[in-house]
Design brief:
Blueprint (H helix, E strand, L loop, with lengths): L2 H9 L6 H12 L7 H13 L3 E6 L5 E5 L1 H12 L11 H9 L7 H28 L5 H40 L26
Antiparallel strand pairs: 1-2
């Protein structure tokens, strides 16, 4: 999650102080990716170091305000115009777990899959309920529309994960069935030979 670009997007609407940025960020994303004030101020310090923001006085309550610079606007618009890179996907804990569970002694991988499926379907139901609540009243401001987009992305993501888990289970069943019907190699040298080819494929076969 690019916190720095999220903060730049909020600062383009006008100067803000740290805790307000945190509140607006969480409101825009429905608290899906909660921030703490320390993260916000650490990011602001780095943005200031990089010339993306500057301190812009204080408000009536004495809060230090930050404002976006021209360099920050250029960075933000470049981010908006650049596709998210999928060539180096982030590590996915579930994919790693299933990859390591294959063949692991004492692990029932189908139970791992079923347990995860139950959790994923529950999460999808929860997200769908949140979407229904959001649509109960027609979204009227940008924060409500933004949250609706986020929760719909979470629903699609959960649906895709559930389909992938179904696929994993089906593949494991097919592999288990294939292993059960595969004849075991007999003793002797023949067991160490390479795969047997059909007579027509053998080199130098007689016609």
């Amino acid at each position: 999650m690019s916190i720095r670009h999220g903060l730049l997007a909020l600062l383009e609407r006008g100067p803000r102080y740290g805790s307000r940025l945190r509140t607006e960020f969480e409101s825009r994303t429905g608290s899906t990716w909660p921030l703490n004030v320390g993260q916000v101020y650490t990011t602001l310090s780095r943005l200031e170091r990089d010339g993306m923001v500057v301190q812009d006085g204080a408000d009536d309550a004495g809060h230090d305000l930050y404002a976006i610079t021209d360099a920050g606007r250029t960075e933000l618009h470049t981010w908006f115009g650049t596709p998210v890179d999928r060539t180096h996907p982030p590590r996915d804990e579930l994919a790693i777990k299933l990859a390591m569970a294959v063949g692991a002694p004492g692990v029932d991988i189908r139970e791992v899959i079923q347990s995860q499926r139950r959790h994923t379907l529950k999460a999808m139901q929860d997200y769908t309920r949140l979407k229904a609540q959001a649509l109960a009243d027609v979204p009227s401001d940008r924060d409500e529309v933004a949250w609706l987009l986020v929760v719909e992305q979470l629903i699609f993501q959960a649906e895709a994960e559930a389909r992938w888990l179904d696929h994993c289970e089906s593949r494991l069943v097919r592999l288990a069935e294939a292993a059960a019907t595969e004849p075991s190699a007999g003793p002797g040298p023949a067991a160490t030979r390479g795969p047997v080819r059909a007579p027509a494929e053998r080199s130098g076969s007689q016609r």
